[in-house]
Amino acid sequence: MIRLLALLICLVGPAAAQEFNARATVEAIRMDGEEVAVAISQPVRWRVFVEADSWRLVLDTSEVDWSSADPAAIAVDAEWRAGRIRAGWSRLMFELPGPMRIERAWMDTDVGTTINVVLTEGAGSVGPLNPQAWDVRPSTTVPTVQRRRQTGDRPLVIALDPGHGGVDPGAEAGGLTEAALMLRFARELSDVLKRRGHEVVLTRDGDEFVGLRGRSTIARAGQADLMLSLHADAVEGGGAEGATVYTLAPGNETQLAAEIAQRHGRDDLLLGVGDVEQGDEIARILVELARAETAPRSVKLADALVAGLNAAGIRLHKRPRLGGKFTVLKAPDIPSVLLELGFMSNTQDLANLGNPDWRSRMAVAIANGVAAWAEQDAAEALLLRQ
């Protein structure tokens, strides 16, 4: 699904000719109706746009430390948040009351440095996305030589993908965020897997934003044999409970899977990029061929994980195996699953996520499931070679 941007303005201005040495600090943030002014200590590279799907004003900047803002110098009449989205880039977002477009935007460097944006009511036409300017999308560079399919003769490389992070905290409950809980669990699971002789690649190892496609790119760059995307969502009513394992199944979603996939898909909205397939026909065919081999392996990985969790006495959702349209599972060459450890909207699940003993049992159960899958997968790979 292509995310439409109401307007995108990539501006070079006076900042282009200047050197960006130390990180800029924030001196003031002001939003009063249709006018926004962000004062910083020095010129930086920047871009600003309005998201048509969610009606947010988004300001991307290079090398700005938003944590330096003095609360007394912040006067904003809307919900807002700021954080890091990748190395060297950060994002400031304002919630808009409805359809708005950018009338003017400029960086004033006459007296200090201020980024100014003037909004007006109404949706604008879609502007051109200029990837040549200050593009904040994750690099798509990957190794030209990919690791061969594992056959049990070398350490398994496992990509762990703690969901959300940075400007996207994920679900929230009891003062906790999904992003923080999943990062903690990913580190604990990493320790368990490493003790078993596996190698681990983390898609993030801090509170930072990584786009959905960027997560697959990191896994591929690390030559991962499989990827586990870790989440703990929340649903209205708090009725859902227990662990669930998802595989990519774009044509066969339950209502719950569709709801959760839609929320996870907001990651790419926050980054300002969409789920756009490549137009090259040859590339598309190669991707589909790779996916045809990988998809059954992902299904078997999911089944093995459910079996491992069940054997360990981990509480499972009433339908522990589901499929959905998850962008993070679309890597055609890496068996990938999304594991919802539980639901933060459920009191018991939330307590489990905060319990070190439960997390330890969960980590061991996942490691056991991965081991069972790897053994079966290696045997199949050897048969295919014969």
TrEMBL record:
Record's keyword terms, sorted: Hydrolase, Signal
CDD domains to which the protein is assigned, alphabetical: MurNAc-LAA
Domain of life where this protein originates: Bacteria
Cellular component per GO, a single term: outer membrane-bounded periplasmic space
Signal peptide limits: 1-17
Domain MurNAc-LAA, residue spans: 216-371
Pfam families: Amidase_3
Gene Ontology BP, a term: peptidoglycan catabolic process
Enzyme class label: hydrolase
Enzyme Commission number: 3.5.1.28
Catalytic activity reported: Hydrolyzes the link between N-acetylmuramoyl residues and L-amino acid residues in certain cell-wall glycopeptides
Keyword Signal listed: yes
GO molecular function: N-acetylmuramoyl-L-alanine amidase activity
UniProt xrefs under PANTHER family: N-ACETYLMURAMOYL-L-ALANINE AMIDASE, N-ACETYLMURAMOYL-L-ALANINE AMIDASE AMIC
Name assigned to this protein: N-acetylmuramoyl-L-alanine amidase
Species of the source: Jannaschia faecimaris
